[in-house]
Amino acid sequence: MTRAQRQAVVQAVKDAPIDLGGELELLRPEFEAMVASRAVPPDVATASMELGPVSGLRISAGATVPGRTVVFVHGGGFVVGTAASAVGLASAVGRAAGAESIAVDYRLAPEHPFPAGLDDVVAAYAALLDSGTPPASIAIAGESAGGNLVLAALVALRDRRLPLPACAVVMSPFVDLTLDTSSRSSKAELDPALSTSALRRRISEYLADTDPRHPLVSPLLADLRGMPPLLVQVGSYEVLLDDALALVRRAAHADVDVTLEVTAGVPHVFQTRMAVLEEAGAAIESIGRFIDRHTQRP
């Protein structure tokens, strides 16, 4: 373990000028600027694409297994982020998995509250199936609010009797919008990225008039039977730690093949810090092995 690296990452997150609970007219450009400041390897290539009614980015990095695809859903509290801001993490996951990544540009709240973003993720995945990509060659992955949308999309797809992807990966998933978790308070002093007040503000914008206990809003409360193999990664410093732990318990009780990886002393979506944190690189490599193990080779 690299204690100095972990401490440096936590301090860097504290020092960042990003307040998830801030005003959107400032938060959105600040978020995009922060992500743009992180170098992407020179061999990463992107191309705009359409998945039915939804826009996205096709992302390639390194050698790929023909046909293997990662559908990637960015985070940002349902209100910030774009497919472009996801390129760094989506390309890293794709490289580790030997897959092409497709980042989905779903609609954001408050302009487009629930279920707009979820509908876009479902539509993008369905369009990928319609294009001829077999579900056994597809993984779906997301971080933070994107993890919420990944799980909700899987529930919606199952209920519509559409073929599910081969596996799913969620990083620091935000899956209980009731905020009924003990880590929300017990980790408040340790988490440098998220606060309860910020989460409440973004939840209210995403929900509009929807009950936070709706299973497609809080997929922790959904029936998870029939979900594909699931990998859950989270840091021990997160106010969302209990979201991940409870999700794993719920999935296990629903007979889902589920794997939990908790990394000590790291903050929300620590996987984005690959350049400076060994644990981030290890987590990405674990995701790659998981996707390689569960997706079909031609």
Automatic annotation (TrEMBL):
InterPro entries: AB_hydrolase_3, AB_hydrolase_fold, GDXG_lipolytic_enzyme, Lipase_GDXG_HIS_AS. Keywords: Hydrolase. Residues 70-271 form the Alpha/beta hydrolase fold-3 domain. Belongs to the 'GDXG' lipolytic enzyme family. GO terms for molecular function: hydrolase activity. It holds the Pfam family Abhydrolase_3. The keyword Hydrolase applies. It comes from the Bacteria. It comes from Streptomyces cylindrosporus. This is Alpha/beta hydrolase.
